[in-house]
């Protein structure tokens, strides 16, 4: 892979050999590079988990917050300084489990941020328990008789909430993943990119081979502006579609808010405040 | 004409009671404004049930030619709109209480225990005027006449209050008030024994120039003056007034105001906003704050400033949602896992609520630490007049640096404070991490770095301790007995001590309970007798004082039934404790 301004020399990751995270790191760097994003103008926001360590491996601004809580600060960072590019990134457990409530309501707000979710259908850092996206029957040290709960379908949930951009990628294909991420970043509004990635250490079911055999790209003729068609594809589970399911541009959180000026450049309008105070006479 | 002056002071204490939805709040707003515009000081508190309709609520309004600071038990004039609400407060009715109400609202027993009952068919009168909802304006007019307020002021206030509803509504309300005014005249000419107040003296114009507001508005205005850019909050009594007021004024002041999905999102958004260079407020009550605790811990670790307003109410759990308590001092003091510095402010008045909230933003920015503002239901719902807030000396003191290319967010310094950069301002990168991190902000598990960083963060407390809000001292420093209070009890203790009129007590009020001011530690150590008054069950400030000074309080004056202290109660309980 070619060098980018986001590279850190001599950097070592905490990821296992063969982990999909390596590919995602490369794909995102390529996307940032292709879009000529400057490290100083980008903020990566993440939670906790193996995927959430990704900002550590970039030369850029980052806010590595709490487990499940990447989205709320990401929304506020973008609202506080709309000039920044904001990417919120974490794993499936972080975004869909611990942070599930924020996932729902961030979509409703439609902030102009990109939400990348590493989806390996298992918990890595805590060593192999089920994640919200684990498939039924998946046996783990905790789910000893296999997962009994219905897997969370982030694509269908996002479309149901009328997310303005909904896509799924598979890191076995870095090039297409990069293209999808670029489309997500350039899209104005909230953009979800759920990325299938194998976990060679704790998920022996959903391997590279499994994902290759069980996914396909949406046809070129697929119209991603039609919500019902998108939902139909999202609900398909025999073979899992990849690509951009749904796009619907609409006013963003910042556009709906009263302020466009970065917070640190603002001054208090004391004259106006004095008028409000006087009005209480 | 035979007028009865209230026995315990120059003021009159009027209590309005009824069901939720009967318009008591509107009546309170109109009456307090008309009184203030007539040159009188007002102080109004309310107690209400956690429901939208029905139940029994009451609002206690003191109107006085002199400044009033607190609630009293005494009722000079009771106007119940329902029988149940009158029964609920019957223990406050004495031979000095006059009741004016419809017959169905007053039981025989209640009437007997009072000093007199004048029956007026408010609803019937209002219906004759068109609609029963005008009965509140009939009451307003009647009270205004008894207190010798000018009908012109009343008309002016009703005109502005109902202006948006059209001329017909304004005129109907004025007609109803005038009817009430005439009823008042009739009562006076019948030479009934009626309560009234001394004429407002020379300071008339001064009072009319003052502002009239509640505690939630004072906190909100302080936040705006503190440079607020962002508020995300989840509605929760009794803190909701702050979110409402700031949302109303958001566009005007370029504030992003968002109702968030939960309190966890609220504080994490606030931290994102501060990280990106904005100033943000998290506002909630105790039950919402416990959800924010992980965020407090995050603020400490990433050394990102944050201001947190907790409007306290009785717990545990849902507790008494619409009542008051000072039960969350220790919650704020020990919130968040790990060891780190913090600042806790607790305003004692509406003026302090404004100025200290403004200051909280500068403190948070300066010390890169969580700053708490502890109010309570009593304070946020108190309506009183106060000199208009003076913004001339106020400044938004930002402590943000433009970063150089080699910028490190957590540079180790002697003071413990690392210059705070923000993303997109300067040539450097700003990396913050909830994991233990090195100077650059990257994850580390180096034990030496860990120790260095813990020490660096804790050193900020030494700086904070040199910058504490001065305690308010009332009385003689050599008095012998030291009485300590914190937060919203400032007014009630002050007024109680004026009544007791003793030289034996030095009153020390803390608007910053943590860290404790050096002078407080010295006064505590030098006290012959130490009394602590708090609106909680276990004496949380007393425990903190003992922790810091090894001095145990000789007596605790505590209250935790959900209601605020009253002046009479504090007078009595100080007497018992001395």
The N- to C-terminal Cα distance of chain B equals 44 Å
Rg of chain B, rounded, reads 26 Å
- Unreliable sequence segments of chain A: none
Topology, number of strands of chain A: 8
Helices and strands of chain A, in N-to-C order? HEEHEHHEHEHEHEHEHH
Helix count, DSSP H or I runs of 4 or more residues of chain B: 21
- The number of strands of chain B is 22
Largest sheet strand order of chain A: 2-1-3-4-6-5-8-7
Let me know the largest β-sheet of chain A.
Answer: 8 strands, mixed
Radius of gyration of chain A equals 20 Å
- The general outline of chain A is globular
What proportion strand of chain A? Answer: 15-25%
Largest sheet strand order of chain B: 7-6-5-2-4-3-16-9
Count of separate DSSP helical elements of chain A: 10
Task: Give the biggest beta sheet of chain B.
Answer: 8 strands, mixed
Structural class of chain B: alpha/beta
Oligomeric state of the chains present here: heterodimer
Descriptive key words:
heterodimer, A: 281 residues, alpha/beta, eight-stranded mixed sheet, globular, B: 578 residues, six-stranded parallel sheet, 39% helix, 19% strand, disordered N terminus
List the helices and strands and how they pair.
The complex is a heterodimer of chains A (281) and B (578).
Chain A: H1 20-34, E1 42-46, E2 61-64, H2 71-80, E3 85-91, H3 92-98, H4 100-109, E4 114-119, H5 154-160, E5 165-170, H6 174-186, E6 191-196, H7 208-214, E7 215-217, H8 227-234, E8 240-247, H9 253-256, H10 270-278
Parallel strand pairs in A: 1-2, 1-3, 3-4, 4-6, 5-6, 7-8
Antiparallel strand pairs in A: 5-8
Helix pairs in contact in A: 1-6, 3-4, 5-8
Chain B: E1 2-4, E2 12-20, H1 24-37, E3 41-47, E4 54-64, E5 77-80, H2 83-88, E6 98-101, H3 108-113, E7 116-119, H4 122-128, H5 135-146, H6 151-161, H7 167-189, E8 193-195, H8 204-209, E9 211-214, H9 215-225, E10 230-233, H10 240-248, H11 250-253, E11 256-259, H12 263-275, E12 280-284, H13 286-302, E13 306-312, H14 329-334, E14 343-345, H15 350-367, E15 370-376, H16 377-381, E16 383-386, E17 431-433, H17 447-465, E18 472-474, E19 481-486, H18 490-500, E20 505-510, H19 518-526, E21 529-534, H20 540-549, E22 555-558, H21 567-577
Parallel strand pairs in B: 1-8, 2-5, 5-6, 6-7, 10-11, 10-12, 12-13, 13-15, 14-15, 19-20, 19-21, 21-22
Antiparallel strand pairs in B: 2-4, 3-4, 3-16, 9-16, 18-20
């Amino acid at each position: 892979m070619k060098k980018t301004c986001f590279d850190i020399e001599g950097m070592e990751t905490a990821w296992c050999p063969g982990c999909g995270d390596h590919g995602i790191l490369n794909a995102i760097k390529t996307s940032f590079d292709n879009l000529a994003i400057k490290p100083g103008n980008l903020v990566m926001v993440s939670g906790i988990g193996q995927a959430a360590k990704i900002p550590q491996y970039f030369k850029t601004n980052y806010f590595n917050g709490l487990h499940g809580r990447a989205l709320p600060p990401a929304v506020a960072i973008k609202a506080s300084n709309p000039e920044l590019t904001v990417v919120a990134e974490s794993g499936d457990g972080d975004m869909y489990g611990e942070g599930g409530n924020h996932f729902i309501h961030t979509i409703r707000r439609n902030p102009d941020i990109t939400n990348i979710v590493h989806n390996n259908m298992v918990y890595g850092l805590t060593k192999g328990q089920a994640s919200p996206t684990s498939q039924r029957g998946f046996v783990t040290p905790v789910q000893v008789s296999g997962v009994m709960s219905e897997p969370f379908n982030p694509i269908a949930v996002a479309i149901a909430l009328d997310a303005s951009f909904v896509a799924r990628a598979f890191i076995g294909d870095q090039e297409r993943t990069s293209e999808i991420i670029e489309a997500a970043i350039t899209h104005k509004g909230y953009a979800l990119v759920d990325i299938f990635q194998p976990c060679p250490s704790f998920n022996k079911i959903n391997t590279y081979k499994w994902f290759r055999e069980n996914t396909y790209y949406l046809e070129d003729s697929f119209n991603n502006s039609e919500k019902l068609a998108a939902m139909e594809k999202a609900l398909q589970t025999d073979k899992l579609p990849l690509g951009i399911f749904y796009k619907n541009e609409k006013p963003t959180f910042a556009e709906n808010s009263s302020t466009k000026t970065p917070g640190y450049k603002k001054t208090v309008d004391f004259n106006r405040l004095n008028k409000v105070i006087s009005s209480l006479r | 004409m035979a007028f009865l002056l209230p026995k315990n002071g120059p003021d009159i204490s009027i209590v309005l009671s009824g069901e939720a939805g009967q318009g008591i709040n509107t009546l309170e707003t109109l009456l307090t404004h008309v009184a203030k515009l007539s040159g009188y000081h007002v102080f109004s508190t309310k107690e209400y049930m956690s429901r939208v309709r029905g139940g029994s609520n009451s609002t206690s309004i003191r109107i006085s030619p002199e400044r009033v600071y607190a609630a009293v038990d005494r009722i000079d004039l009771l106007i119940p709109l329902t029988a149940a609400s009158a029964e609920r407060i019957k223990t406050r009715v004495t031979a000095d209480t006059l009741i004016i109400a419809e017959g169905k609202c007053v039981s025989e027993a209640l009437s007997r225990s009072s000093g007199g009952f004048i029956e007026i068919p408010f609803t019937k009168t209002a219906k004759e005027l068109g609609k029963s909802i005008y009965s509140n304006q009939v009451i307003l007019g009647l009270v205004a006449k008894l207190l010798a307020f000018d009908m012109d002021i009343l008309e002016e206030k009703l005109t502005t209050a109902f202006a948006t509803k059209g001329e017909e509504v304004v005129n109907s309300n004025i007609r109803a008030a005038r009817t009430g005014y005439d009823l008042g005249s009739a009562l006076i000419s019948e030479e009934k024994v009626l309560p009234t107040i001394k004429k407002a003296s020379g300071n008339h114009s001064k009072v009319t120039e003052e502002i009239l507001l509640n505690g939630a508005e004072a906190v909100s205005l302080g936040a705006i003056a503190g440079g607020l850019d962002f508020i995300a909050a989840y509605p929760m009594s009794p803190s909701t007034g702050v979110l409402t007021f700031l949302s109303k004024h958001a566009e005007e002041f370029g504030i992003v105001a968002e109702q968030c999905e939960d309190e966890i999102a609220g504080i994490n958004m606030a931290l994102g906003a501060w990280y990106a260079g904005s100033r943000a407020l998290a506002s909630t009550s105790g039950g919402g704050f416990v959800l924010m605790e992980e965020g407090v811990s995050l603020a400490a670790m990433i050394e990102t400033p944050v201001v947190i307003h907790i409007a306290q109410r009785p717990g545990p759990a849902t507790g008494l949602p619409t009542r008051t308590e000072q039960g969350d001092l220790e919650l704020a003091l020990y919130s968040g896992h790990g060891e780190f510095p913090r600042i806790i402010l607790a305003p004692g008045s509406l003026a302090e609520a404004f100025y200290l909230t403004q200051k909280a933003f500068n403190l948070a920015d300066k010390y890169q630490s969580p700053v708490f503002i502890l109010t309570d239901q009593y304070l946020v719902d108190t309506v009183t007049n106060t000199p208009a807030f003076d913004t001339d000396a106020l400044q938004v003191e930002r402590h943000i640096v433009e970063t150089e290319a080699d910028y490190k967010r957590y540079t180790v310094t002697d003071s413990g404070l690392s210059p705070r950069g923000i993303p997109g301002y300067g040539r450097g990168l700003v990396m913050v991490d909830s994991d233990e991190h090195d100077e650059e902000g990257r994850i580390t598990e180096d034990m030496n770095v860990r120790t260095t960083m813990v020490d660096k963060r804790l050193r900020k407390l030494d700086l904070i301790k040199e910058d504490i809000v001065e305690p308010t001292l009332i009385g003689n420093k050599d008095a012998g007995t030291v009485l300590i209070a914190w937060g919203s009890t400032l007014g009630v203790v002050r007024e109680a001590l004026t009544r007791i009129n003793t030289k034996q007590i030095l009153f020390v009020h803390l608007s910053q309970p943590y860290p404790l001011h050096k002078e407080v530690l010295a006064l505590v150590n030098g006290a012959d007798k130490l009394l602590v008054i708090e609106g909680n069950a276990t004496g949380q400030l007393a425990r903190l004082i003992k922790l810091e000074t090894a001095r145990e309080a000789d007596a605790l004056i505590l209250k935790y039934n959900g209601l605020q202290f009253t002046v009479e109660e504090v007078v009595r309980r100080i007497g018992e404790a001395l």
